[in-house]
Amino acid sequence: MTMRLLSLLLAAFLLAALPARAEVAYPLTVTDSLGREVTVPAEPKAVLLGSGFNLVALSLIHPDPVSLLAGWAGDMKGDNPEIYARFREKFPAIEDVPIIGDGVTVSFEAALSLKADLAILANWQADSDLGRQAIDYLERTGVPVVVVDFNNDALDNTADTMRLLGRVLNREEQANAFADFYDARIARIRERVAAHPEPGPTVLMDAFPNPEKCCYAYGTGGLGAFIAITGSRNIAESLPPQGGLVSIEFIVAANPEVYIATASPGGTYSGFSVGPGVDPEEARETLARAVESPFLASLKAVQDGRVHGLWNFFNAVPLNVLAAEAFARWLRPDIFSDVDPDETLKEINDRFAAVPFDGAYWISLKAN
User: Fold this and answer.
1) What InterPro entries does the record tag this protein with (predicted)?
2) Position 104 confidence tier, pLDDT thresholds 50, 70, 90
């Protein structure tokens, strides 16, 4: 037997010994994030994304998520052009994917013309009148609609939502691996806080700080839940879960021990710039300017240097595990000194991400 033949036989043996990727059987009926039963007739090949941010979720379980798209909304491209640019560098075909809406509205005519076999909507879209109309329209034209939720109760729902996407898109192995990874890191935070029940600091989370007016504070929902998981206390917990406007007097009276600002790259809605593609020094400098106003500068949080910033759109993507770890490190450094979101991001990039995520997604006024 020649060496070439022996090598071929050995290669064939090794390939046969590898476990086959588990295949999903279609038609497939699933329960989506709104509790709706949805039947998907066949493996989706032409997907409509009601929110462009859900491309991030697809990119964690599929090596070429853009190849799945029949059409998508332009909200990620518009709100976070830097993260869009990263996808365009890796997958130039994204430039040719038709836009079907802006994340708030959906063009029914465009959706119908694209001959999609699945639509994925975000929970906040499906909860609106326009979203319900879109679901009804798409389903009447034969396009099944699956609703996903990375926003409401994200700490409890994100892993299950990834598993849902994995089943629907025939990527269960990859989705389950990410969900297990996510669950393990959230469990570490919960377990350690349970072992240290003493209360953490008081916190203000200020969405898109604006020197012209004050202030939109996160409540206990969305990213606000990431305060509570650390055992810390949100000064805006009496507001509706989504948060709301608060006055200077309210903040000064509460005098929070920690201040966290949220924003987007380029300071789209405020002067503070943080998120994909942002240099850490730019993020730190713009955060420093955001707390220069006299009333913020007088707060205990600012006086003590406990000022931090975070990419606001963590509330739309399964990367929110990074926000949870950043909050743990910032708010309870005494029990989370070994938790490092930078290392977690590196592992996500190495193990899961079709497009690596880079930039200053979180920042502290004081460099480590």
Assistant:
1) ABC_Transporter_SBP, ABC_transptr_periplasmic_BD
2) confident
Over residues 102-131, the mean pLDDT reads 84
Closest CA to 365 of 269, 316, 276, 299: 299
Q: Where are the alpha helices (DSSP H) in the chain?
A: 3-17, 54-59, 75-79, 81-90, 108-113, 123-126, 129-140, 154-168, 172-195, 225-228, 248-254, 280-290, 294-297, 300-303, 320-331, 341-351
Burial of 191-201, coded b for 16+ CB within 10 Å and e otherwise, reads ebbeeeeeebb
pLDDT tens profile 37-68: 999 999 999 999 999 999 999 999 999 999 99
Do 22-182 and 197-364 have matching folds? yes
> Whose CA is closest to 131, among 246, 34, 25?
34
Cβ pair 360, 282 in contact under 8 A: yes
CA atoms of 98 and 91, how far apart (whole Å): 15
pLDDT digits (tens, 9 = 90+) for 199-213: 999 999 999 998 778
- Give CATH for domain 22-182: 3.40.50.1980
**Domains of the chain: which residue ranges?**
22-182, 197-364
Question: How many whole angstroms separate alpha carbon 208 and alpha carbon 225?
Answer: 18
C-beta atoms surrounding 328 within 10 Å: 26
| Whether the Cβ atoms of residue 361 and residue 275 lie closer than 8 Å to each other | yes
Q: Looking at residue 23, what is its pLDDT?
A: 78
Among residues 302, 89, 319, 284, the alpha carbon closest in space to that of 186 is found at 319
Assess if CATH 3.40.50.300 describes domain 197-364.
no
CA distance 334 to 363: 19
Q: How far is CA 168 from the centre of its chain?
A: 19
pLDDT at res. 15: 38
